[in-house]
Amino acid sequence: MEVLGREERSRLPYHVSQVQQPRATINRLHALFHSMAILALLYYRASRLFGGTQNSPMSAWLIVFASEIVFSFLWILGTAFRWRPMSRTVFPERLPPDEELPAIDVFICTANPEKEPTVEVMNTVLSAMSLDYPPEKLSVYLSDDAGSPITLYAMEEAYSFAMSWIPFCRKYGVETRCPEVYLSSSAHDHPQHSTTEFFMEEWDKIKSLYQLFKERVEKRASESDGTGGRSIILSRDHPPLIKVINGTRMDAPGVEQAKMPLLVYVAREKRPLYPHHFKAGALNVLLRVSGIISNAPCILVLDCDMYCNDPTSARQAMCFHLDPQNSHSLAFVQFPQSFHNISCNDIYDGGMQWVFKVLWPGLNGLKGPMLSGTGFYIKREALYGRSTMRQDIDVLKLRLYFGLSNEFIASLRQNYKYIIDNGVPTDALLEEAVFLASCAYEKETIWGEQASPIGFMYHSVVEDYTTGFHLHCKGWTSVYCHPSKPSFLGSSPINLNDTIVQNKRWGSGLLQVGFSRFCPLTYGLLRMPILQCMCYGYVALLPLSSFPILCYGIIPQLCLLNGISLYPKVSNPWFLVFSLVYLSSLFRHLFEVLSTGGSFGRWWIEQRMWMTRSATSYFFAFLSTIMKFISASEVDFELTNKVIDTKKIERYKAGKYDFESATLLLLPLTTIVILNMVSFIGGVGRVIFLNSYNELLGQLFLSFFILVMGFPIVEAMVMTKEKGSIPTSTTFISAIFSIVLVSLGFILFT
């Protein structure tokens, strides 16, 4: 009967997919309607431009026309996301027995203990070690780019605590396996166990052990006696260090021991004269080092602040990787990025709901979502390439691809696994791992090169986007798994400066790809379906929206001050076309927000942050990319600060914008807001006293809309003495820029 039950279970699918048909139909009908309206709008502009019937200055007309073309182009690319949205449901209970599951290596990257608190990183490590997966098939690797002794010490302490934490989680079926989160609550918050006296005793012991672990790590981090000083923590010049953590047993009487996952500390070599390729370089070192140790066929990649919130995520991912129909072509399973520190208002749109509830489900119905940096289970075979893993391939060619390590080349055999007895590796194994982590190992190989990709891609700070793009170009597919319970939870920026810096970094990397020979709209056109190509192109070129946003925030306003109309009169039927295009785009976004569980307030915040990102992050990303091409310099990888600031958290939770540290980056936005204040007042005066309502209503409404969306900017400039307000110097410089623009407007448009 047991055998029969297993056979019946094996015939059931591990997952099911369903196209969101009502939404797909609505999206396609809207695309048809909006496309017709856009064509009519562009026809109006072109006919009057080439027919010479426009009453506005040629330069202003051309700039606005170009802005509308860019917006239309990006909108057309974005329709591909809405063509076939799909949802998926998994059935982990139908998976084969544990002994038949593939092994998993977990890669976690950290780079700076000052911006990425060590205790928080260790919570991510502990949550990964506690996944609901056979421990003998689970290995966790932490890449420490700082080479910090504090991080290594914390890993040893974390392993010791895990020897008690992991059996506790398994014994009581703990669902939240990040100890900081679980132990921050009370034992009475878990009624399924709190009635038993034995559970209360073990809870107290585990909590005491965790407090002891935190105290030890924080004490070591605060020391500066030569073992934990700033100069060592932030070292950018250090040799490689590989250590398999064994741990020293912390005193926890009465707690049952359990099999432990493998835990490995990796500090790759870093030298000033060698490029380190940011996160992609760290991941490739982990790929090589893990290849000669555990060599798991599947890899989970996590950011250091993205802890495992649902221990069953590995089994959910296996529902796709073990699917006999699609497994051969499946490269990775992407989970959404969710965040534990998002407030109910989410004023900075840190949750990126639009991406993970609209765009990625749309990709799910094509060839799958893009790689999203963290929270994905990827096949090692996809990163190596099938062509390099053939049994008949020449060893000399393999060395050209993978380097000179014979041990690593031997690991390309899928059944390879190094046996570590009692958690103690041999000296020879560690020496080989150190060799693989040296900064010169990739010399004269094709690691990370985009022309012949092996591993994670270099030459862009968005290594996830470029790696996923090349995998899709090579015929691999991906799937998007979005369960009701977030599988991973991280921390999102809670002040405007970090938000702008983060989006600037992403925008710079994306534009690098969009302006390179690997532009998705050219390189990908013959290598992937057209809709998938359009989606990749949209994301790569999205920072170009800074151009039309800045133009719409400046040119119509300067013309308004000079009484020049850029839009049809209200009495003209063409005015209806412009109104339809504008309202159609707004209502589509509103429909997407409401249909995915959002609210009108959520929609308004996303609109505001879209304008903010375009005028700041994307604008400076564009400038940074241009400077990169001119000077051939690398785009800086700016880490987002994860350190908790109590005052910033209070302002964020209260829904108050924090402009305090964003000075230079805010200048374009504050300049636009001041200019629109002036143009709106001047426009109202013209409409009232010169009776120009019919000609200037469109531009007057545009200034009003920008002011309403930029109200927090106005408020922060007025309340100069409040914490988090815009510095007076920034307001002053923006006012000067506005005066210059108004003066240029009088010169050019009169």
In short:
This protein has 750 residues and is of the alpha/beta class. Helix content is 52%, strand content 8%.
Tell me what the structure shows.
By secondary structure, the chain is of the alpha/beta class. The chain folds into 2 domains: 19-84 and 532-749, no CATH class; 101-247 and 257-337 and 372-486, Spore Coat Polysaccharide Biosynthesis Protein SpsA, Chain A, CATH 3.90.550. Helix content is 52%, strand content 8%. The protein has an 8-stranded mixed β-sheet with strand order 5-6-4-3-7-11-9-12, sandwiched between helices. The protein has a 3-stranded mixed β-sheet with strand order 8-13-10. Helix 20 (546-561) crosses helix 22 (600-615), helix 20 (546-561) crosses helix 28 (728-748) and helix 25 packs antiparallel against helix 26 (693-709). The longest helix has 31 residues, at 21-51. The radius of gyration is 28 Å and the shape is globular. 47% of the residues are buried. Residues 224-233 and 248-257 have low confidence and may be disordered.
